[in-house]
Amino acid sequence: MSFPVPTMPAPPVGVVGLGQLGGSLAAALVAAGRTVTGWDVDPAAREAAAARGVRIDRELSGVVVLAVPLPAMAGALDGLTVAEDATITDLGSVKLPVLAALRAAFGGRYVGGHPMCGTERSGHAAVDPGLFSGARWALCLEPDTELPRWLRVAEVALAAGAEVVPVTAAEHDDAVAAISHLPHLLAAALAAAAAEAGPLALALAAGSFRDGTRVIASDPAFVTAMVEGNAGPTAAALDRLQAQLARPWPDLVAAGHAVRAGQPAGRRTVRVPLDRPALLALGRTGGAVNRRLAAFVEGWVPDVG
Amino acid sequence: MSFPVPTMPAPPVGVVGLGQLGGSLAAALVAAGRTVTGWDVDPAAREAAAARGVRIDRELSGVVVLAVPLPAMAGALDGLTVAEDATITDLGSVKLPVLAALRAAFGGRYVGGHPMCGTERSGHAAVDPGLFSGARWALCLEPDTELPRWLRVAEVALAAGAEVVPVTAAEHDDAVAAISHLPHLLAAALAAAAAEAGPLALALAAGSFRDGTRVIASDPAFVTAMVEGNAGPTAAALDRLQAQLARPWPDLVAAGHAVRAGQPAGRRTVRVPLDRPALLALGRTGGAVNRRLAAFVEGWVPDVG
Predict the structure, then answer these.
(1) Can you give the residue ranges of the Prephenate/arogenate dehydrogenase domain (chains A, B) (predicted)?
(2) What is the pLDDT of residues A144-191, one digit of tens each?
(3) Which of A181, A208, A240 to probe by mutation at the B interface, max B CB count within 10 Å?
(4) Which residues, 6+ apart, have CB-to-CB distance to A105 below 8 Å?
């Protein structure tokens, strides 16, 4: 088989925003022996990253990761210098709006990404180099995405310990509406409704309430930007949920239990050609690119085993 | 202050049903130096309990705890011999139906209870002597409940490591609809709706989905009996949730976050007379009886410090 990407050393990585996600990614890559440059508007975040071995600089090249909140995405590179051939990616939780904001500036050099991790905590104090270990990382392959750049970003995600799920931005936004944005709204509604029920209810709250409301401990501005940035798919996911809630309770309980009991599915290894249709088909069936598959590109990614 | 209960040694405890809840309670009490007799229709559960120091016998006295699933509650004592002056309590997750089922047979000797713990696992393999440690344990004080018997059951809950929340059965059922039964239905709906969204959505599912669906991993028969046994309050809680979901999302997110961020409230110690109105008022304001308050009754509960 021929390699569709040129043989090249692992590119440097630049991380803009050194909070929980960006700081954790930078720390994970430094721990993996990579050269990482980083920047954050907050001096304390810069200092914390520097202490973990991140080079602090406003000049970025290679794979440049925008790890800033959604409302700050369009202006994330203001005041920074980015190499002309850099590949731009981001960690935002909604992909179509970021694609719309960045496509004009970067065209096929932009590869949207979203690692499915993070906790209700935020900021550089919540940095954890193991945050991405075993996590799924959605990576967008639009019709105009340059595949070698997609592979470069995929390699960064793999180096951080994640598995890469090839998706389109639209597929991603529909999927995360169901499994992330809707759960955030439900957690909020559950907490607010329980408070209405009174102090006795909150005093009796235990495991099922704690679990069902944990994500709404996240920064409300972050959650609001996320659900409003993905309003259409989230509203559609809410409609699907309402239809489920209208079922007879024994049917609903049985259906929900079957889904939860069916997870996680057994894993099998498949070899997938490195082209867009095959990669997207892998993602649609619930598959992910892991380190074994990445061996296909080891000619240009010498540090991935 | 005068003690409303006679000075007496800690009574023996009999546990009917030695699965996760009953087996854990028996094990916790044995570990606390108490004499515990137990029974289960399953020989394997009896053997597991015996190995933890529980005396296996069909004759029960003192505080007799019915730790069987809701559908089995009415017949839990079939084939067993219970002392005529025994105090009967249970661990069922709904209280009005159990009260209706047991009041005729036991009158004021029945004290409904519900420890707010347990996991999605079940059966004697899930026994954990620390299960009740720090948990809230709702204990029903109806107008005809004999207060000395209520205190006896409260002492058992405290000895297992829990804190006791005085409630009426109706108050309990309303409260748990909001913080337990509704979360079970939501978890089921969330899981079923995500499955409808397809394999990609399930493959991307991470923390918020796992947390939001964990409780529906529980035995569906158990969940169905619980929500159908508390249908009125659960439907009312669902209505309150729907009203929350109809709010503008930024308002909903802010309201939910405020509730979650406000938990747990700071604790302060109050002294409460051991009478029904004062105890119920304590429960309604989110308070609980803990070991310090139990010192009031140490004359008859020599092992509570």
Answers:
(1) 11-287
(2) 999 889 999 999 999 999 999 999 999 999 999 999 999 999 999 999
(3) A208
(4) none
Contacts of A215 in chain B (CB under 8 A): 207-208, 211-212
CA-closest candidate to residue B36, choices B187, B209, B159, B210: B159
Cis peptide before A264, with omega less than 30 degrees from 0? yes
Secondary structure (3-state) at B247:
coil
CB contact under 8 A, A179 and B202: yes
3-state secondary structure of B148: helix
**Tokens found for residue B155:** 């002492």
Distance from CA of B127 to the nearest CA of A (A): 17
Q: Is B75 helix (H, G, I), strand (E, B) or coil?
A: coil
- Domain around B234: 172-246
**Do A198 and A221 belong together in one domain?**
yes
For residue A165 the two structure tokens come to 């799920």
| Domains held by chain B: number | 2
CB pairs under 8 A between A and B: 305
CB contact under 8 A, B179 and A194: yes
What whole-number distance in Å separates Cα of residue B180 and Cα of residue A253? 14
What burial class does residue B2 get, using C-beta atoms within 10 Å of its C-beta: 0-12 exposed, 13-18 middle, 19+ buried?
Answer: exposed
Residue pLDDT, tens place only, B61-100: 999 999 999 889 999 999 999 999 999 999 999 999 999 9
* Cα–Cα distance measured from residue A75 to residue A208, given in angstroms and rounded to the nearest whole number: 40
Determine the pLDDT at residue A2. Answer: 41
With beta carbons less than 8 A apart as the criterion, state whether A58 and A39 touch: yes
Residue from A179, A182, A209, A244 to probe the interface with B (highest B Cβ count within 10 Å): A179
For residues A152 and A44, membership in a common domain is answered with yes
